[in-house]
């Protein structure tokens, strides 16, 4: 099958996949097909992937001092209420 993949060009695959193939390359399209072929997959938005990391960074920055809730909201592009929620939850979950 790999030999066939090597011969493929975006123009040879179904129309609805061509834009992705032209943008990301046929190697990536073939790798996705090999790995997920026939499955329905959900691709999350970038902020979903980084949400937990941002939450931890907000808590760490706040604990290290020098930041207000508004500073952190601006730095991480979140609502100040979100910062408050993260910090309240972190405070209640800290071991004694």
Give your account of this protein's structure.
It contains six helices and no strands. It has 96 residues and is mostly helical. The chain has two domains: 35 residues, no CATH class; 48 residues. Helix 2 packs across helix 3, helix 4 crosses helix 6 and helix 5 crosses helix 6. The longest helix has 19 residues. It is elongated, with a radius of gyration of 22 Å. The model has no long low-confidence stretch (mean pLDDT 91).
- The H/E string reads HHHHHH
The helix/strand class is mainly alpha
The number of distinct structural domains comes to: 2
Radius of gyration over C-alpha positions, nearest whole angstrom: 22 Å
- In terms of DSSP E residues, the strand content is under 5%
Task: Sum up the overall morphology in one term.
Answer: elongated
User: What is the helical fraction, as a range of percent?
Assistant: over 70%
Helical stretch tally: 6
Ranges with pLDDT <50 over ≥5 residues?
none
Main pleated sheet: none
Distance between the terminal alpha carbons, to the nearest Å? 58 Å
Mean pLDDT: 91
- Care to count the β-strands? 0
């Amino acid at each position: 099958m790999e030999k066939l993949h090597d011969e493929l060009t975006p123009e040879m695959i179904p129309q609805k996949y061509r834009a992705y193939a032209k943008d990301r390359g046929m190697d990536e399209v073939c790798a996705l097909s090999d790995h997920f072929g026939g499955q329905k997959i959900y691709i999350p938005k970038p902020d979903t992937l980084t949400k937990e990391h941002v939450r931890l960074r907000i808590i760490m920055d706040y604990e290290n001092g020098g930041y207000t809730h508004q500073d952190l909201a601006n730095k991480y592009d979140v609502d100040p209420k979100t910062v408050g929620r993260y910090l309240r939850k972190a405070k209640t979950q800290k071991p004694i």
